[in-house]
TrEMBL record:
It comes from Marinobacter iranensis. This is diguanylate cyclase. Gene3D superfamilies: 3.30.70.270. The keyword Membrane applies. Keywords: Membrane, Transmembrane, Transmembrane helix. The chain crosses the membrane at residues 28-49, 55-74, 86-105, 111-128, 135-155, 167-187. It comes from the Bacteria. It catalyses: 2 GTP = 3',3'-c-di-GMP + 2 diphosphate. Residues 242-322 form the GGDEF domain. InterPro entries: Diguanylate_Cyclase, GGDEF_dom, Nucleotide_cyclase, Rev_trsase/Diguanyl_cyclase. Its EC number is 2.7.7.65. It is an enzyme of class 2 (transferase).
Amino acid sequence: MSDSENAQITGSTSDAVNREQKLRLRRLAMSFASYMVTFSIVVYCWVQGMISLRVAGEFLVFSLLINGTVWYLIHTGRNLKFRDPSMTSVQMIVSLLPALWVMAFLDAGQARAVFLLIAIVPMLYGILALTTRQFVVVGLWFFAFYGVLHLGLWLYRPEVLNSELEILQTVAFALVMAEITVIGGFISSLRGKLRQRNLELGEAMEQIRELVNVDALTGVYNRRRLFEVISEECNRYSRMPGSFSICLMDIDHFKAVNDTYGHQAGDAILQAVARSVTEGLRAIDCFGRYGGEEFLLVLPQTPLEGARIRRCMQRKPMAAIM
Ligand SMILES: Nc1nc2c(ncn2[C@@H]2O[C@H](COP(=O)(O)OP(=O)(O)OP(=O)(O)O)[C@@H](O)[C@H]2O)c(=O)[nH]1
C-alpha cells in the first residue's frame, strides 16, 4: 500500500473517530438535559417541603459531577481507551445514584415512586446500544442500588416504609425493567444484523464499482472508464490549460496470432501486453483496453514530445514481454 493510501486511510479513520466523539458529546448533552428535568422535580419537592435545600443541592452536585466527568473523559479522548468508549452501561448505572439519594430523604412512598419512574428513562438510552446481557447487568445494578436504599430506610427510617406499597413498586419496577431488557435486546440484535448487511452491501458495491470500470480479461481499465478519464482531462484542460496526451496502441498482426496459435494464446498475449505497459506507468497515467487488440493510454500533464518518448519505451517486440 502506498504512503498516500495509508495517509488517506488514517485520515478517514480519524474523521470517523471525531464524528463518533461529537455524537457522544451530543448524547451527553441530551442525558444532562434529562438530569435537569429530574432536577426540576427535585426543586418542586424542596418547594413543597418534602426535602431540604441541602438534599436538592446535593442532587445538583452529583449530577454535575457525573456529567462533568463523562464530558472530561470524552473531551480529552480518554474514553477511547475503554472497551465501550460511549460508556453507555456505566452512565446508565450511575444516573440512578442522584435520584436514589433524593429518594432516601423522601417520607412518602408515592413520592419515591415518582423517582422510580424517572429511573426508567436512562434505560431508554441503552436501547440502541446494549445487548440483552448488558441490559441484564444494568438491571441488576439498578436493583442492587434499590436494595441498598431500602436496606438503609429499613435500618434508619423504618417508619416511612409501607411494605405493601414498596412490594407493589418493586415488582412493577422489576417487570418494566424486564420488558425494556427484552425489547432493548431485540432492537440491538436487529441493529447488529443491519450493520452486518450494510457492511456486506458496501463490499458488494465496491466490487460492482470495480467490475464496471475494469476489463475482465486483462484487468486494466475498460473503454467506459477510459472515456470517463478522457472527459475529466478535457474538463481539467478547459479550466486550467496545460497538456495531456492520448496514445492508441495496437498489436500488429494479432489476427495471425489467433489463427496460428489459437484464441487462448491470443488472450495470454493481451494479458501480457496489459501487464507490461502497466508496469512502466506513473500513478497519474491511465491505461485501458479500448477494444479487441487495441489499448489506450491517457497521459495527464504530458506534452506530445513526452508522449512520443513514452510511446517508444512501450514499443517492444512480443517476445520481449512474454
Ligand atoms: N484472443 C483474442 N482475440 C481477440 C479478442 N478481441 C479481439 N480479438 C481478435 O483480434 C483480431 C483483430 O484483428 P485485426 O483488427 O485484423 O487486427 P490485426 O490482425 O492485428 O491487424 P493489424 O492491426 O492491421 O496488424 C481479430 O482476429 C479478433 O478476433 C480477445 O479478447 N481475445
